[in-house]
Amino acid sequence: MIDLRSDTVTTPDEAMRDAAAAADVGDDVYGEDPTVNELEARAADRVGTEAALYVPTGTMGNQIAARVHTERGQEVLADRKSHVVKYELGGFAQHAGLQVRMLDADPRGVPTPEQIDASYVAEDLHRPGTGLLCLENTHNARGGLAIAPEKIEAAADTAHDRDVPVHVDGARIFNAATALDVPVTDLTEPVDSVMFCLSKGLGAPVGSMLAGTEEFIERARRVRKLFGGGMRQAGIIAAPGLEALENVDELSTDHEHARVLADGLAEIDGIDVQEPETNIVLVDVSGLGLDADGALERLRDENVLASAFGETTLRFCTHRSVSREELDRAVSGLAAAFD
Ligand SMILES: *Cc1c(COP(=O)(O)O)cnc(C)c1O
After folding, report:
1. Atom 6, ligand 1: residue with shortest CA distance
2. Is the CB of residue 171 below 6 angstroms from any atom belonging to ligand 1?
3. Distance between CA atoms of 44 and 50, rounded to whole angstroms?
4. Predicted TM-score (pTM) above 0.85
5. What phi, psi does 317 have (nearest 5°)?
6. Residue nearest to atom 5 of ligand 1 (CA)
7. Using CB atoms within 10 A as the burial measure, which of 54, 110, 265, 282 is most buried?
8. Closest among 325, 282, 288 to 307, alpha carbons compared
């Protein structure tokens, strides 16, 4: 099977397994795990923040961020198609007592300054007040779009003018920086906190990072404990995370593979391909007279796996555990599946 469902299916390589086996460890709840401490310092340095926190999942990182930035009962502004809205079980309501004000953000999934101004709610006797703006980069559900620094800056500046903090769900922020050919700090500098995943294209088996100011991370550390994310000898899993940080330069290969895949898909009559910007390819299969599940079934018969991303939409995601040779086989399989 050539598994293009997600970049989360990457498995740890030898270097990661060796690093795990050799890791210096201690009790991280006591702050005594040297490997976790090193990972947090290196991650903060990478994204240009004062501090960072190792968290079990990206979802927990986003949820902690919302809890720390807000007061119960406030509103969060987020794109209707963002991960925090679609795929986190309404966690903002459950974990932080927040109401989400969903925006039909511009086609790239970034609320415009006008939208932010129009959706902002000032606190008064009747109204809850806006407590957070949440952005996403790359934007997963809109096709792995790499959001440029200027867009992030425009949105963040508008929020900041209203004293509203800004969090970026940057699960794949290094993919964005790679695609845009900018330092990742250009994407993080305008905002107050960022989460990124080690466990996706970077290839670590587990873990994400939440980054921000010292004060923010100090509070985030308490909320991580509250949410049950305080881990003990976590150096065992943090060590592969340190290796994963070294894989950033290889993301461009995944992007090249996505373009190859998109070109192959575009050859097939009845498939409508969204031009990929990073490692995600969205296609509409309605022209084949199939729904997403029907198309996936055909693909499975050709040993290719993808994800259903809507009634008639499929998502393909390239990653470091699929070689160029396997990718080429997948492209032939696609042609055969929809012949
Ligand atoms: C995968 C993903 C997350 C969450 O990561 P998990 O580690 O799976 O919880 C958050 N945001 C986006 C955009 C993602 O793609």
Report:
1. 58
2. yes
3. 6
4. yes
5. -130, 120
6. 58
7. 54
8. 282
Is 58 near ligand 1, meaning CB less than 6 Å away? yes
Beta strands in 120-279 (DSSP E): 130-136, 166-169, 193-197, 208-212, 272-273
Longest distance between any two alpha carbons in the chain, whole Å: 63
**pLDDT tens column, 85-103:** 999 999 999 999 999 999 9
Whole-number pLDDT of residue 308: 96
Strands 280-284 and 313-317: antiparallel
Instruction: Write the pLDDT tens digit of every residue in 9-32.
Output: 999 999 999 999 999 999 999 999
The whole-number pLDDT of residue 243 equals: 98
Check: CB of residue 152 under 8 Å from CB of residue 190: yes
* 199 CB within 6 A, ligand 1: yes
The b-or-e profile of 88-117 (16+ CB within 10 A means b, else e) is beebbeebbebebeebebeebbbbbeebbe
What is the rounded CA–CA span in Å between residue 36 and residue 175? 23
